[in-house]
Amino acid sequence: MKKLPLAFYAGFLAVALLLAGVVSYAASSSPDGLDAVTQSGCQLDESGEPVGGRCIAQNAGEHATGGSPLADYTVGGSEGTTGIAGVIGVLVTLVLAGGLFWLLRRRSSTRDETPSRVE
Amino acid sequence: MEPQTDLVAMHMSDGIVNAPTSLIFGVVAVLGLAVCVARARRDLDDRTAPMAGLVAAFVFAVQMLNFPILPGVSGHLLGGALCAILVGPYVGAICVSIVLLLQALLFADGGLSALGTNITNMALIGTFVGYGVAVALRRFALRSRAGLVVTAFVAAWVNTVVASLGFVLEYAIGGQGLALGTVFGLMVGFHALIGIGEGIITALTVGAVAAVRPDLIYLTRSAAPSLQIKSQGVTS
Predict the structure, then answer these.
(1) How far apart are CA B136 and CA B139, in angstroms?
(2) pLDDT per position as a tens digit, B159-187
């Protein structure tokens, strides 16, 4: 185990942050394939709630974490904050997943430079 | 499309299938993930653990990027084949699961009671099916970077379509509102198209990693002890 590919890690993270923070504004706002299926057969109001007809989505409940400050990929529900919510999401995912995988990893007996720089 | 407030729900909500079905697939997800955690250790070391964290963060980012597939219908990356090829199926399934967990807890995307079905479909079925296809094509993937990129595309397309069949199964067990045949036809039809997008994103990502750090790609690394990795590095 030699030097960690820190430059590669940094580049990979930069791409993820760019996608979530900037490119996310260009994402399609149409329902995805699954939602299109569950809404099939219903008339929807402007907020996408089924108001008539018969469809699978009528069985859906309110979201239990709908009051979360980051609900629906916004910060506090404000318009135009998708990028900020996305950046927060990328960083939280990295810390949680990276931390878990770091704890789970096989420790190499050959000691290296300090691993703490990676996180 | 007019601006909507409810536009970024991407996964199954609570109540789409009934409670017993949610519970059954909750158990499936927990058991599946327990196996993954037990086996993931073998695939994680000082180099691959940070890589796996970054792959999870990358999947979170790309899942935000819905792309249009038909008028009024979009799709987004699921990420199973992508994760499996880069960090292996066990670590990869955990990556997708962490993304789904955070989306449900923080972003109100995907119901809490639907976590079991969402994890089963996208993290377990998607990742292991994608990996199975990639392994079947590994000989081809090892030959050149073009072979690897094509392998990534095919594995991602299959992972998307088969993951959508997971929903059809859950709906058949505990859903109501639409004829099962209609649900099957729409799900497979939409996801055959979404799978093209999934395939392109997966191929681009795997191709980019292969161009700069082929040693960080699980699929080709685990297939080939050090000697073959060197020869592959020369050809690609």
Answers:
(1) 8
(2) 999 999 999 999 999 999 999 999 999 99
Domain boundaries, chain A: 7-117
- Average pLDDT for chain B: 91
Rg of the Cα trace of chain B? 18
Cα R_g (chain A), whole angstroms: 20
Rounded CA separation A5/B216 (Å): 9
Helix and strand counts by DSSP (H, E) for chain B = 11, 2
* Minimal CA separation from B1 to chain A, in Å: 7
Nearest to residue B6, comparing CAs of A102, A72, A15?
A72
A63–B40 CB contact, under 8 Å: no
Domain ranges of chain B: 19-65+76-235
Yes or no: domain B19-65+76-235 corresponds to CATH 1.10.1760.20: yes
Cβ separation B171–A56 shorter than 8 A: yes
Interface test with B, best of A79, A93, A119 (most B CBs within 10 A): A93
pTM, rounded to two decimals: 0.90
pLDDT beyond 60 at B226 = no
CA-wise closest residue to B160 among B38, B40, B75, B58:
B75
The C-alpha of A53 sits at a distance from chain B's nearest C-alpha, in angstroms, of 10
